[in-house]
Design brief:
The complex is a heterotrimer of chains A (385), B (295) and C (183).
Chain A lengths: L10 E6 H12 L3 E4 L6 H14 L2 E4 L3 H13 L4 E5 L1 H17 L3 E9 L5 E5 L4 H6 L8 E3 L4 H18 L2 E7 H5 E7 L43 E3 L13 H16 L2 H4 L2 E4 L6 E5 L2 H15 L4 E6 L1 E3 L3 H8 L4 E5 L6 H9 L5 E4 L9 H12 L1
Parallel strand pairs in A: 2-3, 2-4, 4-5, 5-8, 7-8, 12-13, 12-15, 15-16
Antiparallel strand pairs in A: 1-9, 5-6, 7-14, 11-13
Helix pairs in contact in A: 1-2, 1-6, 3-4, 10-13, 11-12
Chain B lengths: L39 H15 L6 E5 L7 H4 L3 E4 L5 H11 L4 E7 H7 L1 H10 L4 E6 L2 E2 L5 E2 L23 H8 L3 E6 L3 H12 L5 E6 L3 H5 L7 H11 E3 L16 E8 L5 H13 L9
Parallel strand pairs in B: 1-2, 1-3, 3-4, 4-8, 7-8, 9-10
Antiparallel strand pairs in B: 5-6, 7-10
Helix pairs in contact in B: 1-7, 4-5
Chain C lengths: L2 E9 L4 H15 L3 E6 L9 E9 L13 E4 L2 H7 L8 E5 L13 E5 L1 H7 L6 H13 L4 H9 L7 H18 L4
Parallel strand pairs in C: 1-4, 4-5, 5-6
Antiparallel strand pairs in C: 1-3, 2-3
Helix pairs in contact in C: 1-4, 1-5, 3-4, 4-6, 5-6
Classes of the chains: A alpha/beta (385), B alpha/beta (295), C alpha/beta (183).
């Protein structure tokens, strides 16, 4: 299906990433946002609060991020497409409900505009240091999908994709922005509604009495209903069976948790989205994501100007980690360089995928600004030796 | 009584009789997890009778619980039911209600869940006048985790994490609900089954943030530890200590280990719900541009 | 490939960010180029230092920050002091000449001043000082076309203020053209 034109601000705009992400959510059909103000993400919900009364839907500012991150899940089971928006300290509070969304397979989108941490850290300055938190921060085994935009245009495009993936896979999907992308203003092209593909919820066609909320077909993903349709569903954060009823035994735990994680892990290759440039004959491949990709692009250009064969693999989808493709790339280059605005997070995933085939060099940064391209260039030059 | 016969009373011509609450329960999930003498089941019994009497459309009713013994209520009722995280039933219910305003949404949980970990959510949902009916079974303790001190534990009562007796001031739940702006506030005990059933029925038919506190015995973890007898002894105490005082000033309804238990309907007031307020306000400010929200 | 890095500095409340938005919009929407605007965020609201970084290029902008601007536009003495050391050798300074006195100007810098506040006051609203500066920028540098800048301006200012702002832009633009010997 295609987008509801009511939410689509078709045209050419000059928007920052926060505003563009909001427009992406509206275009994707998001009609319920619960949030709590936190820099540098607040502009997303401010715009939503301003726009939604004319589109049809609502925004509610909750009392904290715990409330926001579960209110959206109530709204999802009420039939809406939903989102919440936050930054580091708020994300820490949302970890509880990340787990709830994972175990109840509630489609929902979280936008995290990353800032420097730990704790209150650097409220107005960038980092990419929540990458591991979204993957591992809630207790237990679970899987998510995470997307990393590097421009306001991608904040728009990938927010739509985040909603589509949440509906398709029934997992929480994260848009991992950062302060620079969030506050950077560029041209954003919003297409006509009929040119925006939207994934509808996997509504069941079963009648009340025959539907079981966690029955799955071959793809391992259950169909959904909403409250009020007569299905009398039970949804619980406890380990549950196909009826949704608590079933707290090792056999059911094994079955459920393997399915919840397997539906993403087994499809990591399907979900992979790497933008590759000049990787075919590269001696050094820079693996990057988010805003750091653009800084890396500047460094790579300088390296290529010096005659070095340097490729660029930009991860648009960071979770699930595209291990297969990274391993393939590692088999044909001599070294990999991973710049990120943290002291080493995704580099561990790269190293794991590369499995010793070639050296992997981290270009770390504690956050607060982006890398100096020269620092990345120096590391590329070292790696090329 | 099963196993006995009565020659004068032949019931064989009647269809086999089920417990009248059974149609409201997920039979396959019975037996429940609650201890003998626990008061939670009694409250559920009253709730289902109220559903029956209120002729509530069950497909339009959703129940949301948090975590704890009372948190299991959602799982036993044959309704759209959501068993959420600890303390967060109210914000989940807020999202559910706002997403689908045609639903009558009931939050059914315990005192620790709603007033310790979830206290802030309670406060704000009441302040906003979110259109929810919130039922709190207050057993003065954390039952599921083994009898720790709760925000409702009376002064002097012993609990595993207050082994020398509780010295913390307990919260008076009706007073909190009243102060935060609830439109309907009532308290009953599991002794008052008729009044409680009527109260449920009344509250189901109203709008706004409605709060019902029900005092219930926890024989295993509160009564035994404090040498208060068993469930029946406690219900007897409820009978003896309770005074019905409708419209009582909620400042005056605090509870102790001994003394008067004031019960009744304390607050009935009219306020626009959050959703009505939003629709009215945005309609006024934005005029025709506003897409009115609702079911 | 042409790439111009611009820093606009002034005080909070002077409309520094709006100037950047108009330039970025003009270049990226109406001139068919690429533009990236970065605004310095801080806890400050009004009256404190405020700056916008705009990169305008024929190709997509990779590295988004402006470290050594080709053009520095300043509307306050503090902004001048703060940013002039970062000006690229041989770069260009555009300044509000009644507020800023360029001293210790680096060698090779071309400096152009405009009494933007006075012009704005003559137009009846001191507030349009920033728009005079935008016009001045377009007139002196030609990095954005006046047609594109006017369209971007009209798309960015509040309804009812269009003719005032357009007048401010044109005064600044003409002043700039005169200084560089244009028509």
């Amino acid at each position: 299906m295609t987008a509801d034109p009511k939410g689509v601000l078709t045209g050419v705009h000059f928007l920052d990433g926060d505003h563009a992400a909001c427009e992406g959510a509206l275009a994707a059909g998001c009609r319920f946002v619960a949030g709590y103000p936190i820099t540098p993400s607040t502009e997303v919900v401010e715009r939503f609060a301003q726009r939604i009364p004319m589109v049809g839907g609502l925004f509610i500012q909750m009392e904290d991020e715990l409330a926001a991150s579960i209110a959206i899940q109530g709204a999802a089971w009420g039939g809406r497409k939903v989102m919440t928006v936050t930054s580091g300290p708020g994300l820490s509070l949302m970890m509880e409900h990340l787990g709830l969304a994972a175990i109840t397979e509630t489609p929902c989108v979280f936008i995290d505009v990353q800032r420097g941490g730990p704790s209150t850290g650097l409220p107005t300055l960038p980092a990419q240091a929540d990458m591991m938190q979204v993957k591992w921060g809630s207790h237990g085994d679970y899987e998510i999908i995470a997307l990393c935009p590097d421009s306001p245009q991608e904040c728009f495009d990938l927010t739509i994709r985040a909603f589509n993936l949440a509906e398709q896979w029934r997992v929480p999907v994260f848009l991992m922005m950062d302060e620079v992308v969030g506050h950077m203003t560029e041209r954003v092209v919003i297409p006509a509604a009929e040119d925006i593909e939207i994934t509808d919820r996997r509504w069941t066609d079963k009648a009340p009495g025959t539907y079981r909320p966690f029955d799955v077909g071959p793809d391992g993903i259950p169909d959904m209903v909403k409250a009020g349709q007569g299905h009398r569903i039970h949804v619980t954060g406890l380990t549950h069976d196909e009826r949704g009823w608590p079933a707290m035994n090792p056999r059911q735990q094994d079955k459920l948790v393997r399915r919840l994680t397997g539906k993403i892990r087994d499809n990591a290759d399907v979900l992979t989205d790497i933008r590759e440039e000049n990787c075919e004959d590269a001696d050094v491949i820079v693996v990057s994501y988010g805003i750091t990709s653009r800084v890396a692009t500047a460094a790579i250009q300088q390296a290529r100007d010096q005659g070095l064969k340097v490729g660029h693999a930009r991860l648009v989808v960071t979770w699930p980690f595209p291990a297969t493709r990274i391993a393939q790339l590692a088999s044909r280059c001599k070294a990999m360089v991973v710049p990120e605005l943290n002291l080493g997070q995704m580099v561990h995933e790269v190293s794991r995928a590369v499995a010793g085939r070639v050296p992997v060099r981290l270009v770390d940064h504690a956050g607060g600004t982006v890398h100096d391209p020269q620092v990345i260039l120096d590391r590329i030059l070292e790696a090329a030796r | 009584m099963s196993g006995t016969t009565n020659d004068d009373l032949d019931l064989s011509h009647l269809p086999p009789m089920d417990n009248p609450v059974m149609p409201y329960l997920r039979k396959e999930r019975i037996p429940h997890i609650w201890c003998p003498g626990c008061g939670i089941g009694t409250t559920v019994n009253c709730f289902t009778r109220a559903l029956d009497e209120a002729a509530q459309d069950l497909d339009r009713l959703a129940i949301v619980s948090g975590i704890g013994c009372t948190g299991r209520v959602a799982g036993y009722l044959n309704l759209d039911s959501f068993h959420t995280t600890h303390g967060r039933a109210i914000p989940f219910a807020t999202g559910l209600k706002l997403a689908n305003p045609d639903l009558n949404v009931v939050v059914y949980s315990g005192d620790g869940d709603l007033f310790a970990i979830g206290g802030n959510h309670f406060l704000h949902a009441a302040r906003r006048n979110m259109d929810l009916m919130v039922v709190c079974v207050n057993n003065f303790t954390y039952g599921m985790t083994g009898g720790q001190v709760a925000p409702t534990t009376p002064l002097g009562a012993s609990q595993t994490t207050m082994p020398y007796g509780n010295f913390e001031n307990p919260a008076s739940l009706p007073f909190l609900a009243d102060a935060a702006g609830a439109t309907y506030v009532a308290r009953w005990t599991v002794f008052h089954v008729r009044q409680l059933t009527r109260c449920f029925k009344d509250a189901l038919g109203r709008k706004g943030f409605r709060f019902i506190e029900i005092l219930a015995p926890c024989p295993t973890l509160f009564l035994r530890r404090n040498r208060l007898g068993d469930g029946v002894d406690m219900v007897r105490q409820y009978k003896e200590r309770s005074v019905v005082r409708n419209g009582a000033d909620t400042k005056e309804v605090g509870l102790g280990l001994a003394g008067e238990i004031v019960v009744g309907t304390f607050v009935e007031r009219e306020r626009p719900t959050w959703l009505d307020a939003m629709n009215d306000h945005l309609g006024k400010v934005l005029g025709d541009r506003y897409q009115r929200y609702g079911g | 490939m042409a790439r111009t890095e611009i820093r606009i500095g002034g005080l909070g409340g002077q409309g520094v960010i709006l100037s950047g938005i108009i330039l970025g919009k003009a270049a990226s929407i109406f001139d068919g180029k690429h533009a990236t605007l970065i605004q310095a965020f801080g806890p400050e609201a009004r009256g404190s230092a405020c700056s916008a970084q705009v990169t305008i290029a024929d190709d997509p902008v990779a590295y988004p920050y402006v470290r050594n601007p080709d053009v520095l536009v300043v509307m306050s003495p503090d902004a001048y002091k703060q940013f002039v050391p970062s000006l690229k050798p041989g770069g260009m300074l555009l300044y509000e000449e009644e507020l800023v006195t360029p001293t210790d100007l680096p060698d090779g810098v071309k400096a152009y001043g405009i009494p933007a506040t006075r012009i704005a006051e003559e137009l009846g609203r001191r507030l349009v000082l920033n728009i005079v500066m935008v016009g001045f920028f377009a007139g002196v540098t030609g990095v954005v076309s006046s047609e594109a800048a006017e369209k971007a301006l009209l798309a960015s200012v509040p309804k009812g203020t269009e003719s005032l702002n357009l007048g401010a832009f044109r005064r600044g633009y003409e002043h700039g053209r005169r200084l560089v010997g244009g028509d």
